Amino acid sequence: MVQQDAGKSSLINLIPRFFDASSGEVLVDGVNVKEYNQEFLHNKIGYVPQKAVMFSDTVKGNVGYGENGKEKTEGEILKAIEVAQGKDFVEKMENKYESHIASRRQQHKWRTKTKACNCKSNS
């Protein structure tokens, strides 16, 4: 646990360059964030909220969502689900990756068993 007023928000805001560091440098993958194209930098950042958000869509549609509307390949989506340890669960669903996630019960089950936000951030 990190104490209050330790600068967590300030640190997080430096990475996407909402403001620049007054001294020193902020590195992502060993590169100063000032050297990145901002769109490219923003696409390197994944956000996993404490409470997962799912859309009324298929498993594949939920995992593939993001990155400024750029579509993910099926391979990228399957890899993200596998990295998040959701493959076994999804493949037991009736329509597998085309299963529709709609009801609260389904969403809760999907969040709990597959860590869907991790899938999204890994895709």
Question: How does the helix and strand content classify structurally?
Answer: mainly alpha
Distance between the termini: 28 Å
Characterize the overall form: elongated
The proportion of strand residues reads: 5-15%
Summarize the biggest pleated sheet: 2 strands, antiparallel
Overall mean pLDDT stands at 76
Order of helices and strands: HEEHEHHHEHH
Helix content: 40-55%
Q: How many β-strands, per DSSP?
A: 4
| Number of self-contained structural domains | 2
Strand arrangement within the widest β-sheet reads 1-2
- Gyration radius, to the nearest Å? 17 Å
Count of helical stretches: 7
Uncertain runs: none
Model description:
The chain is mainly alpha-helical and 123 residues long. The protein folds into two domains: 8-44, no CATH class; 57-122, no CATH class. The protein contains seven helices and four strands; from the N terminus they run H-E-E-H-E-H-H-H-E-H-H. A two-stranded antiparallel ribbon has the order 1-2. A two-stranded antiparallel ribbon has the order 3-4. Strand 1 and strand 2 form a beta hairpin. The longest helix is centred in the last third of the chain and has 11 residues, at 104-114. The chain is elongated. The two termini are 28 Å apart. The mean pLDDT is 76.
